[in-house]
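Technical note accompanying the year-one report. For the benefit of new consortium partners, we illustrate the data format agreed upon in the data management plan: each record pairs a sequence with a structure-token string. No post-processing was applied to the example shown here.
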Amino acid sequence: MKVEKITFKDQILAIVVRNGSTNQELEWPTPPDFPLQLGIHERKKGSFLIPHNHIPFDVLKNLQVQEFIYLEKGKLKFFLYHEKKEVETVILNAKEMILLNCGHSVEFLEDSKIVEIKQGPYRGNDMEKEYF
């Protein structure tokens, strides 16, 4: 996979993962302080990860809300915002993904199917989004 980091004023606005292949078994393109950690595995047949659980965090406060989008089919245009001002656009094609770490809007350029992951629990639309 080819990883692109979209930055503005030393802040990572988004991490885009383009369709393709890499020679690495595991890549972590996110910084350690991101609330969502993105790992990309390309493992050979027969590889095995030892059974495990993840230890829960004691307290989580004031974390940046992030969203992960995998575009199964279609084409999207993301508008990225910093301090409520548009600073960048990104086109996402089928089989590509993006981890958003900023304000954004999305234009569907084709009929599309996406998979989205973000932190929960869902607090209701009034508590989830600030529109600008």
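Partners are asked to follow this layout when depositing records. The chain has one domain: 2-42+64-128.
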